[in-house]
Amino acid sequence: MRLGSGRNLVLARTLCCPSTSPRKERERRRGLAPAGYPCGQSSVKTVLFLGASVSQVAAIRQARMLGFRVVAVDGNPEALGFADADIAEPVDFSDVERVVEVGRKYEVAGIVAIATDRAVPIAAAIADRLGLPGIGVEVAHRMTNKIAMRRRLQARGLPQPSFLEVLGTAIEAAAVERIGFPAVLKPADSGGQRGVFKVRTLGEFRQRLPETLAFSRSNKAILERYIEGRELNGIAVVRAGHVRVITLSDRLRPPGRGFGVGWIHLYPSVLDSAAREVARNLAASAVTALGLRDGIAFPQLLVTEDGDPYVVEVAARIPAGQMADVVHLGTGVDLVEIAIAQAVGLPIQDAQITPKFERPIAVRFLTASPGFLPVGTVRAVDGIEQIRTAPGVLKADLYILAGETIRPVQVDEDRRGYIIATAPTPLTALELAQQAARKLIVQVEPTE
After folding, report:
1. What CATH code is assigned to 361-448?
2. Are 20 and 43 in contact (CB under 8 A)?
3. Are 279 and 234 in contact (CB under 8 A)?
4. N or C end of the chain, less CB within 10 A?
5. What ranges make up the beta strands (E) of 206-241?
6. What angle do CA 440, 441, 447 make, to 5 degrees?
7. Per-residue pLDDT tens over the stretch 238-255
């Protein structure tokens, strides 16, 4: 892991007085002693991670490399990230009262929610209870509840798909028909593409609605007009209300049932510079409209063939799906470092959000049909080291264990690994990633 500017973040807060022991001197050199901290006392700040799944592992490791003590909570006592945390608490992070107790017990300085939308409002509530930096409960609600988000964007006059609030199963056919088909049916407050369907008729809408509502904590859904176009992932850093869009990348989706899953990322976007500027401005406007003052934003947009941009949705977190890698490998900007600094209330310097370079990147996720992986129960896996040393490959990993079942891609969890490659253009990088993927050997027992 790179310490780089992360070390500077914490070194800016080091003691002015000399250490009185070799251990204290080592802490001082590593930047573990913040300014004003009394000599002779422990100076390590503690951050509390909500979640310790595979999506949080890299960030947990990086937080420790930056000199923070990490407490992680997760309802799964076997969560992968527990092995890398300093302190593991098998607590479901949705249990706010228990997590607040954990925070007080370890005197945490910040709450970190990365890669999961579900944790964002919870992090805001816990930060509020503990008097720690946070994005605020109301902002967190607007940026995780799709109905509240659509209402706010509508009030601000920003372009977005027409939508219908679906409160339970009692819905008039005429209201649905006004949205038109095809349309996209989503839970109001879920993520990972769970319960998301592209529906083409009123009958299909009614058939899918109970399943969609089952994924909503509030038993609410939203129906949106389907708009054909190029989907963009934006990443922005917000400081005191000023939005800086760092990257815009193309998000490609598979055909079929998993149409909502991002299975390819291309950076930079292949859109021309004028279209990118329009999209960049809309992304910033959407983040501002939702009220985020300090944090990392994840605006997603659609751009039609005619060049018309629409806001799909906006999250207030570092997204999953290797987007932090896209930004770091593509520009040199370290989102995890920024997120942790903001969680403990440290100022973000201009240098930290300024791209150092622009490197073309392609991320190819490993999925079953219509992807590369076979469908069935896994017997053996080989070839990951050959992938990592293949031409153009910068990073690769697998989430496949013997005995697990691989199924056709339907939700984000069906992405079973990834390959990140670089080349002179994003499309050439994608070709290299796909060539490398063919080196993977997965033996399965076919499912009946």
Report:
1. 3.30.470.20
2. no
3. yes
4. C
5. 220-225, 230-239
6. 125
7. 999 999 999 999 999 888
